[in-house]
Design brief:
Layout: H1 2-36, E1 40-49, E2 55-66, E3 70-72, H2 78-81, H3 86-106, E4 114-118, H4 121-124, H5 129-140, E5 147-152, H6 153-157, H7 160-173, E6 176-182, H8 189-194, E7 199-202, H9 204-207, H10 214-229, E8 233-236, H11 242-251, E9 255-256, H12 267-276
Parallel strand pairs: 2-4, 4-5, 5-6, 6-7, 7-8, 8-9
Antiparallel strand pairs: 1-2, 1-9, 2-3
Helix pairs in contact: 1-3, 3-5
Keywords: Membrane, Transmembrane, Transmembrane helix
Protein name: Bifunctional diguanylate cyclase/phosphodiesterase
Domain EAL: 24-278
Protein backbone atom coordinates (compact mmCIF):
# COMPACT_ATOMS: atom_id res chain seq x y z
CA UNK A 1 0.00 0.00 0.00
CA UNK A 2 2.61 2.50 1.10
CA UNK A 3 4.82 1.41 -1.70
CA UNK A 4 2.04 1.88 -4.27
CA UNK A 5 1.20 5.33 -2.91
CA UNK A 6 4.85 6.17 -2.90
CA UNK A 7 5.18 5.05 -6.47
CA UNK A 8 2.16 7.02 -7.66
CA UNK A 9 3.34 10.10 -5.80
CA UNK A 10 6.62 9.70 -7.55
CA UNK A 11 4.85 9.43 -10.89
CA UNK A 12 2.70 12.52 -10.31
CA UNK A 13 5.67 14.49 -9.09
CA UNK A 14 7.54 13.45 -12.19
CA UNK A 15 4.80 14.41 -14.62
CA UNK A 16 4.52 17.77 -12.98
CA UNK A 17 8.23 18.27 -13.24
CA UNK A 18 8.18 17.15 -16.83
CA UNK A 19 5.45 19.66 -17.65
CA UNK A 20 7.37 22.46 -15.98
CA UNK A 21 10.60 21.47 -17.64
CA UNK A 22 8.85 21.28 -20.96
CA UNK A 23 7.30 24.71 -20.50
CA UNK A 24 10.69 26.07 -19.58
CA UNK A 25 12.31 24.45 -22.58
CA UNK A 26 9.64 25.94 -24.83
CA UNK A 27 10.25 29.41 -23.42
CA UNK A 28 14.01 29.01 -23.69
CA UNK A 29 13.78 27.96 -27.32
CA UNK A 30 11.26 30.70 -28.03
CA UNK A 31 13.47 33.36 -26.47
CA UNK A 32 16.27 33.08 -28.99
CA UNK A 33 13.92 33.57 -31.91
CA UNK A 34 12.01 36.21 -29.96
CA UNK A 35 15.20 38.22 -29.66
CA UNK A 36 16.10 37.72 -33.30
CA UNK A 37 12.63 38.80 -34.37
CA UNK A 38 12.49 41.81 -32.03
CA UNK A 39 9.54 40.47 -30.09
CA UNK A 40 11.21 41.67 -26.89
CA UNK A 41 10.78 45.38 -26.42
CA UNK A 42 11.86 47.85 -23.79
CA UNK A 43 9.22 49.94 -22.08
CA UNK A 44 10.41 52.94 -20.12
CA UNK A 45 9.16 54.36 -16.86
CA UNK A 46 10.31 57.85 -15.85
CA UNK A 47 12.29 58.45 -12.66
CA UNK A 48 11.85 61.94 -11.33
CA UNK A 49 13.65 64.16 -8.84
CA UNK A 50 11.13 64.72 -6.04
CA UNK A 51 12.33 68.17 -4.98
CA UNK A 52 11.96 69.84 -8.39
CA UNK A 53 10.00 67.38 -10.53
CA UNK A 54 12.81 67.09 -13.07
CA UNK A 55 13.20 63.99 -15.19
CA UNK A 56 16.40 62.14 -14.33
CA UNK A 57 16.07 58.92 -16.26
CA UNK A 58 14.04 55.81 -16.97
CA UNK A 59 13.84 52.22 -15.87
CA UNK A 60 13.83 49.81 -18.80
CA UNK A 61 11.18 47.12 -18.34
CA UNK A 62 11.06 44.35 -20.90
CA UNK A 63 7.85 43.14 -22.58
CA UNK A 64 7.46 40.19 -24.90
CA UNK A 65 5.12 40.73 -27.83
CA UNK A 66 4.54 37.10 -28.68
CA UNK A 67 3.01 36.43 -32.11
CA UNK A 68 0.67 33.74 -30.72
CA UNK A 69 0.37 34.46 -27.03
CA UNK A 70 0.15 38.25 -27.23
CA UNK A 71 1.75 40.55 -24.68
CA UNK A 72 3.70 38.65 -22.02
CA UNK A 73 4.75 40.60 -18.94
CA UNK A 74 8.23 39.98 -17.47
CA UNK A 75 6.79 38.29 -14.38
CA UNK A 76 5.46 35.61 -16.76
CA UNK A 77 8.70 34.67 -18.46
CA UNK A 78 11.73 36.12 -16.64
CA UNK A 79 11.43 33.80 -13.60
CA UNK A 80 11.17 30.80 -15.97
CA UNK A 81 14.52 31.52 -17.55
CA UNK A 82 16.44 32.88 -14.58
CA UNK A 83 18.13 29.53 -13.97
CA UNK A 84 19.32 29.11 -17.53
CA UNK A 85 21.65 30.97 -19.85
CA UNK A 86 18.62 32.34 -21.69
CA UNK A 87 18.51 35.05 -19.00
CA UNK A 88 21.98 36.13 -20.11
CA UNK A 89 20.81 36.34 -23.72
CA UNK A 90 17.83 38.44 -22.69
CA UNK A 91 19.89 40.61 -20.37
CA UNK A 92 22.56 41.28 -22.97
CA UNK A 93 19.86 42.18 -25.48
CA UNK A 94 18.21 44.58 -23.02
CA UNK A 95 21.58 46.18 -22.25
CA UNK A 96 22.33 46.66 -25.93
CA UNK A 97 18.89 48.15 -26.59
CA UNK A 98 19.23 50.44 -23.58
CA UNK A 99 22.59 51.77 -24.73
CA UNK A 100 21.25 52.43 -28.23
CA UNK A 101 18.29 54.19 -26.69
CA UNK A 102 20.66 56.38 -24.70
CA UNK A 103 22.21 57.40 -27.97
CA UNK A 104 18.83 58.48 -29.33
CA UNK A 105 18.09 60.33 -26.09
CA UNK A 106 21.32 62.28 -26.41
CA UNK A 107 19.76 64.19 -29.29
CA UNK A 108 16.96 65.48 -27.07
CA UNK A 109 17.60 68.60 -25.04
CA UNK A 110 16.74 66.95 -21.76
CA UNK A 111 20.12 66.82 -20.08
CA UNK A 112 21.93 63.66 -19.10
CA UNK A 113 19.21 61.09 -18.72
CA UNK A 114 20.09 57.63 -17.51
CA UNK A 115 18.57 54.23 -18.11
CA UNK A 116 18.26 51.68 -15.34
CA UNK A 117 18.49 48.05 -16.46
CA UNK A 118 17.44 45.07 -14.34
CA UNK A 119 19.99 42.29 -14.05
CA UNK A 120 19.19 38.80 -12.83
CA UNK A 121 21.62 37.18 -10.41
CA UNK A 122 22.90 34.64 -12.93
CA UNK A 123 23.69 37.36 -15.45
CA UNK A 124 25.22 39.66 -12.87
CA UNK A 125 27.57 36.89 -11.74
CA UNK A 126 28.35 35.58 -15.24
CA UNK A 127 31.90 36.09 -16.51
CA UNK A 128 32.40 38.83 -19.05
CA UNK A 129 29.57 41.16 -18.00
CA UNK A 130 31.76 44.18 -17.30
CA UNK A 131 33.69 43.66 -20.53
CA UNK A 132 30.45 43.35 -22.50
CA UNK A 133 29.11 46.59 -21.02
CA UNK A 134 32.40 48.36 -21.57
CA UNK A 135 32.39 47.50 -25.27
CA UNK A 136 28.71 48.44 -25.66
CA UNK A 137 29.32 51.87 -24.17
CA UNK A 138 32.45 52.38 -26.22
CA UNK A 139 30.96 51.38 -29.56
CA UNK A 140 27.92 53.61 -28.99
CA UNK A 141 29.81 56.58 -27.60
CA UNK A 142 27.90 56.55 -24.33
CA UNK A 143 29.40 57.52 -20.99
CA UNK A 144 29.07 55.00 -18.18
CA UNK A 145 27.00 57.46 -16.15
CA UNK A 146 24.14 56.77 -18.54
CA UNK A 147 23.73 53.24 -17.24
CA UNK A 148 22.44 52.17 -13.86
CA UNK A 149 22.28 48.47 -13.14
CA UNK A 150 19.57 47.19 -10.81
CA UNK A 151 20.34 44.06 -8.85
CA UNK A 152 18.34 42.48 -6.07
CA UNK A 153 19.54 41.56 -2.61
CA UNK A 154 19.58 37.89 -3.67
CA UNK A 155 22.12 38.62 -6.40
CA UNK A 156 24.60 39.98 -3.92
CA UNK A 157 23.94 37.73 -0.97
CA UNK A 158 24.33 34.26 -2.46
CA UNK A 159 27.97 34.74 -3.38
CA UNK A 160 29.05 37.80 -1.46
CA UNK A 161 32.72 37.78 -2.38
CA UNK A 162 32.02 37.30 -6.06
CA UNK A 163 29.25 39.91 -5.97
CA UNK A 164 31.61 42.38 -4.34
CA UNK A 165 34.24 41.72 -7.01
CA UNK A 166 31.76 42.25 -9.87
CA UNK A 167 30.44 45.42 -8.29
CA UNK A 168 33.95 46.80 -7.92
CA UNK A 169 34.65 45.93 -11.57
CA UNK A 170 31.49 47.67 -12.75
CA UNK A 171 32.21 50.67 -10.55
CA UNK A 172 35.63 50.94 -12.18
CA UNK A 173 33.85 51.31 -15.50
CA UNK A 174 31.84 54.16 -14.00
CA UNK A 175 28.49 52.41 -14.22
CA UNK A 176 26.21 52.98 -11.23
CA UNK A 177 24.46 50.24 -9.28
CA UNK A 178 21.15 50.11 -7.47
CA UNK A 179 19.82 47.59 -5.00
CA UNK A 180 16.29 46.92 -6.28
CA UNK A 181 13.23 45.92 -4.24
CA UNK A 182 15.08 46.78 -1.06
CA UNK A 183 13.64 45.25 2.06
CA UNK A 184 12.01 42.25 0.41
CA UNK A 185 15.16 40.10 0.31
CA UNK A 186 17.59 38.84 2.87
CA UNK A 187 20.56 41.18 2.76
CA UNK A 188 22.17 41.86 6.09
CA UNK A 189 23.29 45.33 7.05
CA UNK A 190 26.91 44.23 7.34
CA UNK A 191 26.95 43.31 3.62
CA UNK A 192 25.07 46.43 2.70
CA UNK A 193 27.68 48.54 4.42
CA UNK A 194 30.49 46.95 2.42
CA UNK A 195 28.90 46.92 -1.03
CA UNK A 196 29.79 49.92 -3.21
CA UNK A 197 26.29 50.46 -4.63
CA UNK A 198 25.01 53.97 -5.38
CA UNK A 199 21.25 53.80 -5.20
CA UNK A 200 18.76 52.06 -2.98
CA UNK A 201 15.27 51.41 -4.34
CA UNK A 202 12.54 51.12 -1.75
CA UNK A 203 10.13 48.40 -2.79
CA UNK A 204 6.59 49.29 -3.78
CA UNK A 205 5.18 47.19 -0.95
CA UNK A 206 6.52 49.75 1.55
CA UNK A 207 5.67 52.83 -0.52
CA UNK A 208 2.07 51.70 -0.77
CA UNK A 209 1.78 51.64 3.02
CA UNK A 210 2.92 55.23 3.51
CA UNK A 211 0.46 56.91 5.88
CA UNK A 212 -1.75 53.84 5.54
CA UNK A 213 -0.03 52.03 8.35
CA UNK A 214 2.56 53.02 10.93
CA UNK A 215 4.93 50.12 10.22
CA UNK A 216 5.44 50.91 6.52
CA UNK A 217 5.58 54.63 7.19
CA UNK A 218 8.35 54.12 9.74
CA UNK A 219 10.17 51.61 7.55
CA UNK A 220 10.25 54.11 4.69
CA UNK A 221 11.66 56.96 6.78
CA UNK A 222 14.16 54.65 8.47
CA UNK A 223 15.40 53.17 5.18
CA UNK A 224 15.81 56.66 3.70
CA UNK A 225 17.86 57.72 6.73
CA UNK A 226 19.92 54.53 6.65
CA UNK A 227 20.72 54.98 2.95
CA UNK A 228 21.67 58.62 3.48
CA UNK A 229 23.90 57.73 6.40
CA UNK A 230 25.71 55.32 4.08
CA UNK A 231 25.97 58.06 1.45
CA UNK A 232 23.49 56.49 -0.98
CA UNK A 233 20.67 57.96 -3.05
CA UNK A 234 17.11 56.70 -2.61
CA UNK A 235 14.42 55.94 -5.19
CA UNK A 236 10.91 55.17 -4.00
CA UNK A 237 9.22 52.65 -6.29
CA UNK A 238 5.50 52.41 -6.88
CA UNK A 239 4.58 55.99 -6.00
CA UNK A 240 0.90 56.21 -6.83
CA UNK A 241 -0.47 59.13 -4.84
CA UNK A 242 0.21 62.77 -4.16
CA UNK A 243 0.14 61.94 -0.47
CA UNK A 244 2.98 59.44 -0.85
CA UNK A 245 4.93 61.89 -3.00
CA UNK A 246 4.60 64.70 -0.46
CA UNK A 247 5.57 62.39 2.38
CA UNK A 248 8.67 61.24 0.49
CA UNK A 249 9.62 64.86 -0.21
CA UNK A 250 9.46 65.68 3.49
CA UNK A 251 11.42 62.53 4.35
CA UNK A 252 14.21 63.64 2.01
CA UNK A 253 13.86 60.88 -0.57
CA UNK A 254 15.59 62.05 -3.76
CA UNK A 255 13.76 60.20 -6.52
CA UNK A 256 10.35 58.79 -7.30
CA UNK A 257 9.04 56.27 -9.80
CA UNK A 258 5.46 55.13 -10.11
CA UNK A 259 2.06 55.43 -11.72
CA UNK A 260 1.60 58.92 -10.25
CA UNK A 261 4.26 60.06 -12.70
CA UNK A 262 3.68 57.56 -15.50
CA UNK A 263 3.27 53.91 -16.30
CA UNK A 264 6.00 52.28 -18.37
CA UNK A 265 5.61 53.42 -21.99
CA UNK A 266 7.12 52.49 -25.32
CA UNK A 267 9.88 54.57 -26.84
CA UNK A 268 7.61 56.24 -29.36
CA UNK A 269 5.42 57.59 -26.58
CA UNK A 270 8.37 58.72 -24.47
CA UNK A 271 9.97 60.51 -27.39
CA UNK A 272 6.81 62.36 -28.27
CA UNK A 273 6.49 63.59 -24.69
CA UNK A 274 10.11 64.74 -24.72
CA UNK A 275 9.56 66.46 -28.09
CA UNK A 276 6.29 68.16 -27.30
CA UNK A 277 6.71 69.41 -23.77
CA UNK A 278 9.65 71.37 -22.60
CA UNK A 279 9.03 72.86 -19.20
CA UNK A 280 12.61 73.19 -17.92
CA UNK A 281 13.10 69.43 -18.06
CA UNK A 282 10.26 68.72 -15.66
CA UNK A 283 8.32 65.52 -16.29
CA UNK A 284 4.82 66.64 -17.32
CA UNK A 285 2.80 64.33 -15.13
CA UNK A 286 -0.26 66.58 -15.03
CA UNK A 287 -0.62 66.19 -18.77
CA UNK A 288 -0.41 62.43 -18.78
CA UNK A 289 -3.94 61.19 -18.20
CA UNK A 290 -4.75 57.64 -19.23
CA UNK A 291 -1.72 55.80 -20.43
CA UNK A 292 -1.96 52.28 -21.82
P1 LIG B 1 11.10 45.88 -10.83
O1 LIG B 1 12.47 45.98 -11.39
O2 LIG B 1 10.95 46.06 -9.37
O3 LIG B 1 10.24 46.93 -11.66
C1 LIG B 1 9.17 47.66 -11.14
C2 LIG B 1 7.85 47.03 -11.49
O4 LIG B 1 6.80 47.73 -10.83
C3 LIG B 1 7.50 47.09 -12.98
O5 LIG B 1 6.71 45.95 -13.31
C4 LIG B 1 6.65 48.36 -13.05
O6 LIG B 1 5.78 48.40 -14.17
C5 LIG B 1 5.88 48.25 -11.78
N1 LIG B 1 5.43 49.56 -11.28
C6 LIG B 1 6.05 50.74 -11.38
N2 LIG B 1 5.36 51.72 -10.76
C7 LIG B 1 4.24 51.14 -10.27
C8 LIG B 1 3.11 51.65 -9.52
O7 LIG B 1 3.00 52.82 -9.20
N3 LIG B 1 2.16 50.73 -9.19
C9 LIG B 1 2.25 49.41 -9.53
N4 LIG B 1 1.27 48.61 -9.16
N5 LIG B 1 3.31 48.91 -10.23
C10 LIG B 1 4.29 49.78 -10.58
P2 LIG B 1 6.99 45.06 -14.60
O8 LIG B 1 7.37 45.91 -15.75
O9 LIG B 1 5.85 44.13 -14.75
O10 LIG B 1 8.29 44.24 -14.19
C11 LIG B 1 8.25 43.32 -13.12
C12 LIG B 1 9.63 42.82 -12.78
O11 LIG B 1 10.18 42.06 -13.85
C13 LIG B 1 10.63 43.92 -12.50
O12 LIG B 1 10.47 44.44 -11.20
C14 LIG B 1 11.92 43.17 -12.68
O13 LIG B 1 12.25 42.44 -11.52
C15 LIG B 1 11.57 42.19 -13.79
N6 LIG B 1 12.09 42.71 -15.07
C16 LIG B 1 11.54 43.60 -15.93
N7 LIG B 1 12.33 43.81 -17.00
C17 LIG B 1 13.43 43.04 -16.81
C18 LIG B 1 14.64 42.81 -17.57
O14 LIG B 1 14.89 43.40 -18.62
N8 LIG B 1 15.53 41.91 -17.04
C19 LIG B 1 15.30 41.26 -15.86
N9 LIG B 1 16.24 40.39 -15.41
N10 LIG B 1 14.21 41.46 -15.13
C20 LIG B 1 13.27 42.33 -15.59
MG1 LIG C 1 13.96 47.23 -11.22
MG1 LIG D 1 11.82 47.00 -7.94
MG1 LIG E 1 10.65 43.67 -8.49
Amino acid sequence: QAKAAGRSNFRIFNEDMLLQANNRLMIEQDISSAIAEHQLRLFLQPIVSIADGKLKGFEALVRWFHPKRGLIMPANFIPDIENSDAIIEVGNYVLAEAVQLLQRLKHKDWGELYIAVNLSARHYLAPGLAEYIRSLLLSNGITAKGLLLEVTEESVIEQVDKAMEVMAELKTLGVRIAIDDFGTGYSSLSYLKQLPFDVLKIDRCFTSGIQENDADTHIVTTVIDLAHNLGRTVVAEGVESELQYEFLATAGCELAQGYLLAKPMDEHRIMSVLDSIHDSRRWPREDMPSLL
